[in-house]
């Protein structure tokens, strides 16, 4: 089996699973309880929070645990909008955001907020000048993802940070789900970023766990009310075993960042070079300012899901662009935003590599690709 769908989810590290099992079986007290078992759980919770914060170069008081990226995005987009509604009801999100951000913004529009979508250029990068033109006196939030989940374009977070440097009333949110442990932290978590969202299962942790970075002093309405956990910002009993496992996974993947970048970029380069030899292949992902591990392409006249299932017959697992919307059969929203014709966009499939992949798998993929390419000759 060859697994090239790591942007959808990663395989948990054995050490991460071991941490989860050990904590779940040995430290099962509720962190909110006053007795010694609760105290033991609280100490581990605090230690996990400190470790995650240190890995990101932030304070532990700025890390808040969630159930994952979708919850984090919903919380920030809605929570900031409502918290700052008295000062303005206008928000801006990029036109290539994950549905968790886009749909949250559209829901806010139904609640009386005004939403603008910042356009991207033909390569899939937010146009910072056009973003600047959308800013108004009543703008309270700008949200731009760090790494696009469909084609891997690394967004100009530094330039946007510079744009917002003299606009302290505007909160800046970055969806970092596809960026953490894949590109350097400084590329997406600048000093100007106020909020950032993360998801454990994207970096060899477990599903159902994530966290949000909230810069000290920044206000946000809670998404969940109740027992007052997470400094009253997210009330629900913490998933302690999952959180401890997340801290372990983040440490392991961030320590492996340079190796990850080196290995995946080399594999991606070889696949790109081979793809250029096929006249009916369109490559949507580049190398400059693109994540090292994501490569999106299409075969002329062949729908993406057909290619996905064709590779699956050889036990090679890839995906149509976004895992969250792939079953809907819709063309990649990022490609449409880039101006790619819908018929061409529906051909897109995504490879997302990991440091655990190797050159022998790349060779097998390319051999299989040649077979599938020839089989689609009549359709092309």
Automatic annotation (TrEMBL):
Superkingdom, natural source: Bacteria
Assigned keywords, A-Z: Iron, Iron-sulfur, Metal-binding, Pyridoxal phosphate, Transferase
Known EC number: 2.8.1.7
Main enzyme class: transferase
Cofactor: pyridoxal 5'-phosphate
Molecular-function GO term, any one: iron-sulfur cluster binding
Boundaries of every Aminotransferase class V domain copy: 2-365
Membrane spanning residue stretches: none
Coiled-coil region: none
InterPro entries: Aminotrans_V_dom, Aminotrans_V_PyrdxlP_BS, Cysteine_dSase, PyrdxlP-dep_Trfase, PyrdxlP-dep_Trfase_major, PyrdxlP-dep_Trfase_small
Family, per entry: Belongs to the class-V pyridoxal-phosphate-dependent aminotransferase family. NifS/IscS subfamily.
Name used for this protein in its record: Cysteine desulfurase
């Amino acid at each position: 089996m060859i697994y090239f769908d790591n942007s959808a989810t990663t395989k948990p590290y054995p050490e991460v699973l071991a941490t989860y099992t050990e904590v779940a079986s040995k430290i099962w007290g509720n962190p909110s309880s006053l007795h010694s078992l609760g105290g033991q759980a609280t100490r581990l919770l605090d230690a996990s929070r400190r470790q995650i914060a240190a890995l990101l170069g932030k304070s532990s008081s700025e890390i808040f645990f969630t159930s994952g990226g979708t919850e984090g995005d919903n919380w920030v987009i809605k929570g900031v909008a409502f918290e700052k509604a008295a000062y303005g009801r206008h928000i801006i999100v990029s036109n290539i955001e994950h549905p968790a951000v886009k749909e949250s913004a559209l829901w806010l529009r139904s609640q009386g907020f005004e939403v603008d979508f910042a356009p991207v250029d033909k390569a899939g990068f937010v146009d910072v000048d056009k973003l600047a033109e959308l800013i108004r006196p009543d703008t309270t939030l700008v949200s731009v993802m760090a790494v696009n989940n469909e084609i891997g374009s690394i967004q100009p977070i530094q330039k946007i940070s510079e744009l917002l440097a003299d606009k302290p009333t505007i909160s800046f949110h970055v969806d970092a789900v596809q960026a953490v442990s894949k590109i350097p932290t400084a590329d997406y978590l600048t000093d100007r970023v106020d909020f950032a969202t993360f998801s454990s299962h994207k970096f060899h942790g477990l599903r159902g766990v994530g966290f949000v970075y909230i810069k000290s002093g920044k206000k946000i309405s809670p998404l969940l009310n109740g027992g007052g956990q997470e400094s009253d910002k997210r009330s629900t009993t913490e998933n302690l075993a999952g959180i401890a496992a997340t801290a372990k996974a983040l440490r392991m993947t961030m320590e492996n960042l340079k190796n990850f970048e080196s290995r995946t970029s080399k594999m991606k380069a070889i696949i790109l070079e081979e793809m250029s030899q096929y006249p009916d292949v369109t490559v949507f992902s580049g190398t400059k300012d693109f994540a090292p591990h994501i490569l999106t392409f299409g075969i002329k006249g062949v729908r993406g899901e057909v290619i996905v299932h064709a590779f699956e017959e050889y036990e090679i697992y890839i995906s149509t662009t976004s895992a969250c919307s792939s079953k809907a059969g819709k063309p990649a929203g990022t490609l449409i935003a880039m101006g790619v014709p819908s018929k061409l966009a529906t051909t897109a499939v995504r490879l997302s590599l990991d440091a655990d992949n190797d050159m022998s798998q790349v060779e097998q993929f390319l051999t299989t690709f040649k077979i599938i390419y020839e089989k689609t000759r009549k359709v092309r």
